Amino acid sequence: MAERFETDSRKMLVRLRDTMAEDSAGQTRLDKIVHLIATSMQTEVCSIYLFRDSDTLELCATEGLQEEAVHNTRLRLGEGLVGRVARSRQVINTADAPAEKGFRYMPETGEERYSSFCGVPIQRLGSVLGVLVVQSKDARQFSSDEVYALEVVAMVLAEMTELGAFIGDSDALSARHQQPIMFRGVLGQEGAVEGNVYLHEPRVVVTNPIAEDIDRELERLQAGVDQLRISVDEMLNTTTTVNAEQVQVLEAYRMFANSKSWRRRMEEDVKSGLSAEAAVEKEQSLARSRLNQSGDAYLRERLHDLDDLSNRLLRILTGQGKETGAEMPENPVLIARNIGPGELLEYGKSLKGIVLEEGSVGSHAAVVARAWAIPLVINARNITTEALNGDVILVDGDQGVVHLRPDENVQKAFQDKIAMQARAQERYASIRDLPATALCGNTINLSMNAGLMADLPSLPSSGAEGVGLFRTELQFLIRNQMPKRAELSALYARVMDAAQGKRVVFRTLDIGSDKVLPYMKPNDEPNPAMGWRAIRVGLDKPGVLQMQLQALLRASNGRPLSVMFPFVAQMTEFQEARAELDKMVEREIILGHPVPEKIEVGAMLETPSLAFAPDAFFEQVDFLSIGGNDLKQFFFAADRENERVRRRYDTLNCSFLSLIEMIVQRCEKAGKPVSFCGEDAGRPIEAICLAAIGLRSLSMRPASIGPVKHLLRRVNLNDAKDVIYESRERGDQSVRESITNWLAYGG
Fold first, then answer.
1. What is 69-90 written as a DSSP string?
2. Which of 212, 262, 448, 658 makes the best surface tag, with the fewest CB within 10 Å?
3. Selection from 268, 238, 235, 264 nearest residue 252 by Cα
4. Could you tell me what percent of the chain has a pLDDT over 90?
5. In 3-state terms, what secondary structure has residue 59?
6. What CA dihedral angle connects 586, 591, 594 and 595, to 10 degrees?
7. 3-class SS at 494?
């Protein structure tokens, strides 16, 4: 960049800083800024458009267009060239605007006289706040230096907008972080809660975007980068893991920390007049913008690394560490971009709810949230940039909706919903110790799912008759290295102690797909849900399976033991896994260790193929558990991580219920017990239908046992079965409408 232009750019920012320092109203500041930019850029027009809501841009200030258009001209996201800039987050620079694709003439602005157009997004950390535009009568293509200068100014405008420098009467000029806002995300765990925001990583606030002393800012930037490099080197040198994948990630960090091009771009930003931290954030915003648009998984991962390093550098420069001293509120709702299971467990069950910007329904965080029965909403875009510590927040996990700083009417309606749920829980508590016996006399065994020691206190309070599924993988996921056999044995023993004689079904390690151990090298599989996972890993890596089986045998200390192998797709896999268990039993006997007085060995039926296994398989297993979540996604060929398809297919689809019924009948013929485990088991209407077609055991999260038992005790399962059969005979695709109407008229 030419030295002359650097000087001009700095002069413009100094004038901008002086304008900001004046004691004037927000609109007056904006009016002075557009005049300043137009004069400095030698253009007839400069305009600033800001979002009045998530889909509408409003002209908030202009130099050169009609004054009456201010706060009256509005564009939808993607509409016209301004809307295109906002949606694409990319600069549009053209000498002939009317000929540009998407151009829209706004007659009230009087812009028909201007040919050239340059629009730059006003963005902060991937969140677009508005658009900065300059226009000229001449057919002029703005130079790369001029575009760069506008990007620098846009960066400052973003920071000042964030800090509330332009507050005014218009919705577009309203104070940020004060208005009610609703986020539509994805349901991760059901439930509703009112609480206060607690940020996992509080935002870094840049209060001095414009440099006072360029040389001083360059020194600060260099010192910060040096400190960052040292910290990354220390992470590499002190890491105790032997996993090559983790070292590879840290090496990528080191590469970025030593990147000359990254440092050079930030130095150019400083020379143009930005402070060191503003320069870091400018490049971070551009990286976030590229990250959001990239479809390349590898590039997205590298941009994510750069984003994380930028955060580290910003905290070094500002001194704003992760520990800000903010106290956790009384009813904390955790807000994070994403979070690992280990970090989440550190917060403990004090959390009332969790909202993530990223994540998936099968993520580690979702597994922990389900285990704790904590409402979870994922993919709530931009919530980390909007929320502040202490903000009132309503999390509706049933709908996947989050209300931040809700207005009084929304808050009151939400409180009424929570009160109704609380009254229902009181009713459920009154039947806690009663059996789940339907009016027809059939009793359904209701068990709970668990995966942590913290879940076990729910066993007596929920009314569960045992643990139908204990997910052993959580103990592997929350660690940075493989747990030792003695550690697992001690944990499993505590689980059995806490169950106080009630049956606990331990599922062996179910990893792969969405559950990747941090110390195991992930496999780049095109479809991991159907790839190398669960029992396939256990049989290919028998050492881990054997170690876990030994830990379970020793934990039992002679007590009865129930072991279940996950994701069995064919009979031989079960036979091989059972043979491994038999070998471990023989070894324990040789070592003189007590072995269980009784061992039940089962399998999870999660693939349609196993439903059609030979009769010999059903005779060999001691019990079966239908894994409803996976079985449904494979039956309908609908990835449960894909929001476009996962809700298209209903558990109460007649064909899916027919498959479940066939499995039940095959188990009855072989004299083997079968249960249904999954989210659908904990939904009362689905539970009624599953029980009506013959299932006598359901396993669910503890909080679902009350509602399911309450409805089961009110209905006649024989009548429900007749409704299901009639619906199927009519050719209905799903029995949901029929069974819902039947229940509405008294069941």
1. GTTT-EEETTSHHHHHHHHHT-
2. 212
3. 235
4. 44
5. strand
6. -20
7. helix
Give which of 91, 60, 73, 76 is closest to 165, Cα–Cα.
60
Element at 187 (helix H, strand E): strand 186-189
How far, in Å, CA of 13 to CA of 329, rounded?
40
> What letter would DSSP give residue 64?
S
The residue assigned the tokens 């006399």 is 441
How far apart CA 30 and CA 71 sit, in angstroms, is 12
Can you give the pTM of this predicted structure? 0.67
| Average pLDDT over all residues of the chain | 85
Give the pLDDT confidence of 562-589 residue by residue, as tens digits. Answer: 999 999 999 999 999 999 999 999 999 9
Cα(202)–Cα(502) distance, rounded to whole angstroms? 44
Question: 667 catalytic, yes or no?
Answer: no
With beta carbons less than 8 A apart as the criterion, state whether 404 and 357 touch.
no
User: To which residue do tokens 């420098």 refer?
Assistant: 165
The Cα diameter of the chain in Å comes to 95
* Average pLDDT rounded to a whole number, residues 173-200: 84
CA 68 from centroid of its chain's CA atoms:
44
Cβ-Cβ contacts under 8 Å for 483 (sequence gap 6 or more): 475, 476
Bridge partners, residue 189, by sequence: 376
Q: Tell me the pLDDT tens digit for each residue of 583-617.
A: 999 999 999 999 999 999 999 999 999 999 999 99
Are 615 and 698 a contacting pair, CB within 8 Å?
no
Which amino acid makes up residue 418? Answer: I
Of 118, 364, 403, 689, the active-site residue reads 364
Of the candidates 346, 329, 328, 335, the residue with the CA atom closest to the CA atom of residue 378? 335
Contact present, 151 and 91 (Cβ < 8 Å): yes
- Concatenating the DSSP letter of every residue in 134-170 gives EEESS--PPPHHHHHHHHHHHHHHHHHHHTTTT--SS
Can you read off the two tokens belonging to residue 289?
């913008």
Q: Is 710 a catalytic residue?
A: no
Point out which residues pair with 86 in neighbouring strands: none
Please tell me whether residue 526 adopts helix, strand or coil conformation: coil
Residue 191: name the closest of 395, 403, 448 by CA. 395
Among 46, 667, 677, 689, the one annotated catalytic? 677
Give the alpha-carbon dihedral of 47, 145, 263, 124, to 10 degrees: 10
Which position has the token pair 């602005």?
Answer: 109
Q: How far apart are CA 263 and CA 306, in angstroms?
A: 12
Question: Do the beta carbons of residue 156 and residue 16 sit within 8 Å?
Answer: yes
What is the 3-class SS of 566-622, one letter each residue? Answer: EEECCHHHHHHHHHHHHHHHHHHHHCCCCCCCCEEEEEEECCHHHHCCCHHHHHHCC
If DSSP codes are grouped into helix, strand and coil, which group holds residue 395?
strand
Strand partners, 45: 135
Residue 116 host element (H or E): strand 116-124
Strands 503-507 and 466-471: parallel
| Polymer length in residues for the chain | 747
Distance between start and end Cα atoms, the chain: 77
CB 698 within 8 Å of CB 448: no
Please name the helix (run of DSSP H) or strand (run of DSSP E) that holds residue 276, with its range, or none: helix 276-293
